[in-house]
Amino acid sequence: MAEEEEGKGRGFRVEDKRRFVPTSGEPRPPENSPDQPQETISPKVDESSEAQRPDIPPRSSIPPPSEISFSSFILGLTTQALIYMGEIPPAPGHPIQTDLSSAQQMIDILSILKQKTAGNLDTGEEAMLGNALFDLRIRYVDLVKKSRETTQEKGKS
User: I want to staple 98 with a disulfide (CB 3.0 to 4.6 A). Which of 63, 86, 90, 145 is the partner?
Assistant: First the structure.
């Protein structure tokens, strides 16, 4: 009970139960006595393994995350809608896919944002959101028309 009260608020305790000492590789004594100091293990980062994996950039080349603004948030949602519409690929080297229901959902989310933020945006943010919505809606309507025409043509033949 005293151990529980003593350990409260400090998180958790990690106990190494491996049969060998990680630093030297020699066998560990069968039981660690309470008077023996516990060995602390610090994680080692094998930087050579990172260099061998071309799909993972080295840590030094990953830029720190930038602060998000309302404009960058709108830009992200707009980009996601364009990906769903098949206007841009989801990632370099990946095929373009179209998901009109998800595109419609992203447009609806942007529309809700416009309604809920009315009167709280500066003129630049308001113009950006309005222009993005207008452009996405026009593109969406064109895609739906093309999709229906393609479906009708397939039905005739």
Answer: 86
Indicate the pTM of the whole model: 0.57
Q: Give how many domains the chain has, as a whole number.
A: 1
Whole-number Å distance between alpha carbons of 82 and 85: 5
Residue 58: inside a domain: no
CA 144 to chain centre: 29
Angstrom distances, CA of residue 80 to CA of 11, 14, 129, 147: 39, 42, 14, 20
Domain limits for position 103: 70-156
Residue 150 lies in a domain: yes
pLDDT at 43 over 60: no
Determine the average pLDDT of the residues in 76-96: 92
